Amino acid sequence: MGHQAKLVLEDGSVYTGTAFGANSTRVGETVFNTSLSGYQEILTDPSYTGQIVTMTYPQIGNYGIADAVDEEAPGPQVEGFIIKELSGLTSNFRAVETLDAYLERHGIPGLAGIDTRALVRKLRTQGSLKGVICTDPNRVKDEVGLLAAARAWSGLTGLDLVKKVTPAELRRWEQNKGLWAQPKDHRGAPVFSVVAIDCGAKRNILRNLVQSGCRVTVVPATASSDEIMALQPDGIFVSNGPGDPEPITYTQQTLRQLIGKKPIFGICLGHQLLGLALGAGTYKLKFGHRGGNQPVRNTGTGKVEITAQNHGFAVDVESLRKKGGEPTHIN
Fold this sequence. Notes:
It is a single chain. The chain is α/β, with parallel strands linked by helices and 331 residues long. The chain has ten helices and 17 strands. A hairpin with a 4-residue loop joins strand 1 and strand 2. The chain is globular, with a radius of gyration of 20 Å.
């Protein structure tokens, strides 16, 4: 920690700052998140697989890292983490370690001390860019080599990242919201049986399903329609996940066979996979929607709702309409 580190983007831009976390070199798509807090949940969200995440809020790390209750998956999923300033103080009675120590333990490089505003302006103008984050003292001066690595990477489009994060086998999910349960939450025995197709599901989504009165069975993204129907679900949930939905043809095929048999609800990647299964198209967003303050217009009421989002691809509205679908919410 404290030595020189760099972010090298595919357009030749170089951002030099200070290293924290692990000494490593990682390649990924450079993106930004506009949330003011929640960095532990962001770091551990499987939807960030293959991405180097930049936080727009300037000071990060002041409440440290809490225990696994705050994690969306076992350990960080990002390729790298970029911030303006790493807090020198950890003040949180639930903290078990510092952000720096956490990233170092998991082998994730961090870059601090750069002008994150300038970086975010570039990403908003040019779109998300392939990049290399380097905190390895033996490689950090090789800007030519780092640039070549960034340009050589294939990028997220056409890449199946779901197979990296989906579980190997079926399992029951029984954990609820625990400390964060609300008085209005369901109490007592489960009312509904839900099968969750795990394309990289955030734990908190599964916790909320349980807290809402659902008995949740998690299946891999490769599960067949017959395997899912054999579980006799009342409904089917398709989770969030990383990257491009188009290569995930196996889940699309399963959904086509399930449509009309059971109610199906998708979030993030799951929503996009459901759109593809219905015959709509998807496309890559210029710089994605990532953060807790994303405005969405409700087409039914005309009201704008503030939402939390994390995705770099979207369903094409016109292709959906051609298949008889109608959007209810538009960014």
